[in-house]
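RECORD TYPE: inverse folding
INPUT: structure tokens
STRUCTURE:
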């Protein structure tokens, strides 16, 4: 906290982080501040020389990129009970971020980010790290579905730089009113990919279902679809592959988390914090065919069957 009472977040990159990667995130924030000031995202604080990402030499001999952002008050969506209203608003938020970033360009945007849903096929060699046979089978089917149905449509999908990780840890709600979204943090997964992935990623964390009711997981995704489409009309090709992208992202969460837990067992609790959500989502959506999902999403967006 500064002397005037304002709060900030000082971010110090790992020694291996390239300055261009940090600049991608801060440049995205600067672009949003200009393109849509109404979006509540951290603001970039420049140093005295007017730089957003200065490089400092540390006592251990490493050089690290440093950035300072304004602190956003709020409570992570992960910590509160959510319902239809928040999901619809989350869909709207995803669309607003897409629109704010639609003209944003950056040399580091087209990076090889493992979490990018466009690169879901890269998780196939990591399937063996999922030890539970039931979970591994569903993840394998999700990736096979992605290969069969989404990959052939790649050339038809609009691409741009997106936030890329609207998971409930990065979306804030108002502490006084949990129905109101209060902001978005962590632009560390910003990447140039399919525009619709902003919605697919956000939706994947909401598709957990309830008990044995088949409609629940699909209707939960549908809440985001309705909110998103109200702000940014979804193209037919995007609706056709949305289900494939959502289940692929769920498989990625499960696979990458287990792989990272093997590499860093001391951090297993942290790196697998979303694994249960991913498993619940895969299990719930496995009860729905992609044709049912396509028809439902088209109906929500008033598209012809």
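DESIGNED SEQUENCE:
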């Amino acid at each position: 906290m500064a002397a005037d009472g304002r709060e900030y977040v000082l971010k110090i990159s790992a020694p291996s982080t390239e300055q261009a990667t940090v600049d991608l995130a801060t440049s995205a924030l600067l672009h949003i501040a200009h393109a849509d000031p109404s979006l509540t995202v951290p603001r970039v604080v420049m140093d005295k020389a007017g730089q957003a990402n200065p490089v400092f030499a540390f006592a251990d001999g490493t050089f690290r990129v440093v950035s300072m952002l304004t602190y956003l008050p709020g409570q992570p969506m992960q910590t509160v009970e959510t319902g239809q209203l928040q999901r619809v608003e989350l869909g709207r938020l995803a669309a607003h971020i897409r629109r704010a970033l639609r003209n944003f360009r950056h040399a580091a945007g087209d990076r090889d980010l493992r979490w990018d849903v466009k690169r879901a096929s890269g998780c196939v060699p990591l399937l063996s790290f999922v030890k539970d046979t039931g979970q591994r089978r569903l993840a394998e089917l999700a990736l096979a579905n992605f290969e069969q149905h989404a990959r052939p449509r790649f050339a038809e999908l609009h691409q741009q730089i997106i936030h890329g990780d609207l998971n409930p840890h990065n979306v804030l709600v108002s502490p006084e009113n949990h129905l109101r979204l209060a902001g978005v943090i962590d632009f560390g997964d910003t990447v140039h990919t399919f525009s619709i992935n902003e919605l697919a990623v956000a939706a994947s964390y909401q598709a957990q279902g309830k008990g044995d009711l088949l409609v629940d997981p699909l209707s939960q995704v549908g809440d985001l679809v309705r909110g998103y489409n109200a702000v940014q009309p979804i193209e037919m090709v995007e609706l056709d592959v949305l289900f494939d992208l959502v289940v692929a992202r769920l498989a990625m969460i499960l696979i990458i988390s287990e792989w990272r837990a093997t590499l860093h067992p001391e951090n297993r609790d942290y790196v697998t914090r979303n694994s249960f959500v991913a498993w619940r989502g895969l299990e719930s959506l496995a009860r729905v065919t992609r044709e049912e999902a396509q028809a439902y999403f088209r109906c929500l967006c008033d598209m012809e069957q």
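NOTES: The mean pLDDT is 92.
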